[in-house]
Design a protein that fits this description.
The protein is of the alpha/beta class. Helices cover about 35% and strands about 20% of the residues.
Length: about 120
């Protein structure tokens, strides 16, 4: 399960987001990440996109060494770090790009599709 809190960026939203994140940081066993400027995602510390993808791969019989994770925001870091090949979009946050094995074109330039074509050898 995940809880997402959205903040109104027209007022004190950034300040409120920072205060909420600080308060949540003192609660053991939860993970708080941002999926964009306007939100915080709260889940159990043992969850994450990367862990979920690897579990799905296990169910489908896909070797972890054949996985690729793509993302652009803080909530994608687990995916980029845990998969065999991490891809950050061209529009990704700098610290997300720093963790990636490859920087693809931006979301607006179909970066995920470009990465799939390049590294998974899918044509079309």
């Amino acid at each position: 399960m995940k809880v997402t809190i959205f903040f109104n960026m027209n007022g004190d939203g950034l300040r409120e987001k920072k205060l909420a994140r600080e308060a949540l940081s003192h609660i053991p066993d939860i993970l708080t990440v941002s999926g964009g400027r306007h939100n915080l995602e709260i889940s159990h510390i043992s969850s994450g996109k990367g862990k979920g993808l690897l579990r799905l791969g296990e169910i489908l019989g896909i070797d972890p060494s054949r996985t690729m994770g793509c993302g652009d925001e803080e909530n994608d870091l687990d995916l980029i770090k845990r998969t065999a090949f991490g891809v950050a979009m061209g529009n990704a946050l700098p610290h997300v790009k720093a963790e990636a094995d490859y920087i693809a074109p931006s979301n607006e330039e179909d970066g995920v599709a470009a990465a799939i074509r390049e590294f998974m050898k899918i044509t079309g």
